[in-house]
Write a structure and sequence with these properties.
The chain contains twelve helices and 16 strands. The protein is an alpha+beta fold. Helix 3 packs parallel to helix 8. It is globular, with a radius of gyration of 22 Å.
């Protein structure tokens, strides 16, 4: 039980002893949040765990960030009556949630027509890309590195103030600093303890360059588990912040000059984990410092396909305010060795050599972002593609590399017209997430911002 993970037998034992009285059955929605229902633990074991009826309204996978029932999705609509989808619990994901008393969580997969996994479900999308790479004899290891920003005052107070005039928990650039404000040190310790108790040990916590900005890194491992864990990490971060009298945000750009990223680290392997034949395949067979042929084709696929898949890893209009010159967020689709200005950074040595994809912001759904990355890798492996020369020097001034879109409108135009996106993801999935981007744009198009009022109220 020290790991926080629960086998079916462990779960039953804990429920029988009274140590667990609540089970949360959850899915990952389109925005990468936990959504589901709270069950009495005995009811869950008796009626759900053994294959009983558990359902969720289909609009969980076809809505916007505000959970509005919106038109334009093939999955569900007012004409279709907003029906339910069956859920299939994934027993291997059961774990304790130490930040909620006597509570366990179990993730579920949503099922579509004929009882098949729902194609547009983020978890299904990632699993299908992993399966497609497995057909090439490749297994993916991944790590997620996430930044967020902490402010004084609980979330309810921040909401009452319209999320304006908030004070970060640190007042200056605390990048790599080990002398932290007491409230930040207390939060960090509580978060690490809570996550360890849920079976999600943290590799490292560090403060970043913007006031109140924090980065958390998790150990490298199974790709699907990494994304499952990220959902719990965000849930825990908000809960622990609330108990510390703080508010946490994963916006990509929560304030002028602040950019929160979600960096994806990945490597490709052949063979079974821990077996003698297991082999990392991104590094060459020489000194292990350069990319292998597989590695070069993977990078080529990333640079060719990711420009056509941007809404999957930059889903909101705010996402694009993070892409600023010399901000450590890339503005061009370039690659380079240990270059943090590049979209694709090659880092590590030998079996540890891997790719860091620096394009996604903290507002990205990790399943969708990693699915896009793996689809692009697969695209590179399916031909004899070769990447351009790596960037040497300032990646923001490397004029040969294509620019990252400046707006969601620009990104959507490339995505919805992309035959490659439809082929890599499936036409149904590509159409679904194109509609999600259109809805985001429609909402923003009708909103009057503080900047517009400040610049135009007295001057127009």
């Amino acid at each position: 039980m020290t790991s926080g993970l629960l086998t079916p037998d462990h779960l039953r034992q804990q429920v029988a002893s009274g140590r667990i009285d609540t089970v949360l059955l959850a899915v990952a929605d389109g925005q990468g949040r936990l959504k589901g229902k709270e069950y009495d633990a005995s009811v869950y074991l008796d009626r759900i765990a053994g294959g009983g009826a558990a359902e969720v309204c289909a609009y969980v996978f076809a809505t916007d960030v505000e959970m509005r029932p919106v038109d334009g999705f093939a999955l569900t609509s007012w004409d279709g009556g907003y029906g339910d989808l069956p859920l299939e619990p994934v027993a291997a994901t059961a774990r304790l949630l130490p930040w909620l008393p006597r509570t366990a969580l179990v993730l579920a997969d949503a099922l579509g027509p004929g009882g098949q996994p729902l194609a547009v479900s983020p978890r299904t999308m990632l699993r299908r890309q992993l399966d497609a790479l497995a057909e090439h004899g490749l297994r993916v290891k991944a790590g997620v590195e996430t930044e967020f920003t902490l402010y004084h005052g609980p979330l309810g107070e921040a909401a009452a103030r319209g999320f304006t005039g908030l004070t970060p928990v640190a007042w200056d650039n605390r990048d790599y600093a080990l002398d932290q404000p007491r409230v930040l040190s207390r939060f960090s310790r509580r978060l690490r303890t809570a996550l360890a108790g849920a079976g999600l040990p943290v590799e490292a916590v560090k403060t970043e360059g913007a006031p109140g900005q924090v980065e958390v890194t998790f150990p490298y491992g199974d790709a699907l588990a990494a994304c499952d864990g990220h959902l719990l990490f965000k849930h825990a971060t908000r809960a622990v912040a609330e108990r510390c009298g703080l508010a946490a945000t994963f916006m990509a750009a929560p304030a002028d000059g602040v950019g929160n990223g979600l960096h994806l680290h990945l490597s490709l392997w052949r063979g079974e984990p821990g077996e003698p034949g297991e082999q990392a395949v991104l590094a060459d067979a020489g000194d292990g410092e350069e990319l292998s042929g597989v590695g070069r084709r993977a990078v080529a696929g990333l640079l060719e396909a990711l420009p056509q898949l941007v809404p999957l890893y930059a889903p909101t209009t705010n996402s694009y305010k993070r892409y600023q010159d010399h901000s450590f967020a890339p503005t061009r689709f370039g690659w380079g060795r240990d270059n943090r200005g590049c979209a694709v950074r090659v880092v590590g040595h030998g079996a540890g050599l891997h790719l860091e994809i620096r394009l996604p912001g903290a507002d990205a759904n990790p399943y969708l972002a990693l699915a896009a990355v793996l689809a692009a890798v697969r695209h590179g492996l399916e031909g004899d593609r070769q990447p351009p020369k790596p960037v040497a020097g300032d990646a923001y001034r490397h004029g040969e590399a294509a620019l990252v879109p400046r707006t969601l409108h620009e990104a959507l135009a490339a995505f919805q017209d992309s035959a490659l996106a439809a082929r890599l993801l499936g036409a149904e999935v590509a159409a679904h997430y194109a509609q999600a981007a259109r809805i985001e744009l429609d909402v923003q198009r009708a909103q009057v911002t503080d900047v517009e009022r400040r610049r135009g109220f007295a001057q127009a």
